[in-house]
Amino acid sequence: MWTFVLGTALVIGAAVATAALAPNVVDALKTSKEIYVATRRADGSQSKVVPVWFMYDGQAVYFTTAPNSYKAKRIRKGSPLMVWVGSETGPHFEGKAELSTDTALATRMGEYYNAKYWIAWLGFFRPRADRVGSGKTVIVKVTPPA
C-alpha cells in the first residue's frame, strides 16, 4: 500500500512539473537535439541566442556551460533563461535558471548524452563529473514557470 501511495505521489508530482510547459514544448523537448538559450542583460535586453545540447528529465532542462560564461554570470545575478526548442524559432518558454556543481548529476547527464548524441559516446562534448568537480564546467538547471 505505501509503495502505491508513494508511486502515485511521484506521478502526480511529475504531472504538475510538466503542466507549466505547453504540450508542444514538452513534445519538442522529448525529440529535439538542441535547445537555443538566451539570458537578460542588466539593461533588460536579451542576449544573443546560442544553441546547446541538453537533457530533459520531465521536470527540468539541464545543460553545461563554462562557470565564467556570460550565461553563468547572468544566471548568478538572477536572470531568467529563455529557451527555444529545436530551432531559434521553435516552441519556447522562459524559466528559472540555477547553477549546480552536482557531480552525480553530471554523471547522469553524461550517460544521457551518450545515448542521445553519437559523438558523446566517443567521449566528446558531454558533461563529465571530473570537470564539474574541478570547477571547469557548471550545470545549468532550468525549471519551467510555476
Blueprint (SSEs and pairs):
Layout (H helix, E strand, L loop, with lengths): L1 H18 L3 H9 L2 E6 L10 E4 L1 E2 L4 E5 L4 H7 L4 E5 L6 E9 L2 H14 L12 H5 L4 E6 L3
Antiparallel strand pairs: 1-2, 1-5, 3-4, 4-7, 5-6, 6-7
Describe the structure.
It is a single chain. By secondary structure, the chain is of the alpha+beta class. It has a single domain, classed as Electron Transport, Fmn-binding Protein, Chain A (Pnp Oxidase, Chain A, Roll), CATH 2.30.110.10. 36% of the residues lie in helices and 25% in strands. The chain is built from five helices and seven strands; from the N terminus they run H-H-E-E-E-E-H-E-E-H-H-E. The protein has helices at 2-19, 23-31, 70-76, 103-116, 129-133, and strands at residues 34-39, 50-53, 55-56, 61-65, 81-85, 92-100, 138-143. Strands 2-1-5-6-7-4-3 form a seven-stranded antiparallel sheet, with helices on both faces. The relative contact order is 0.19.
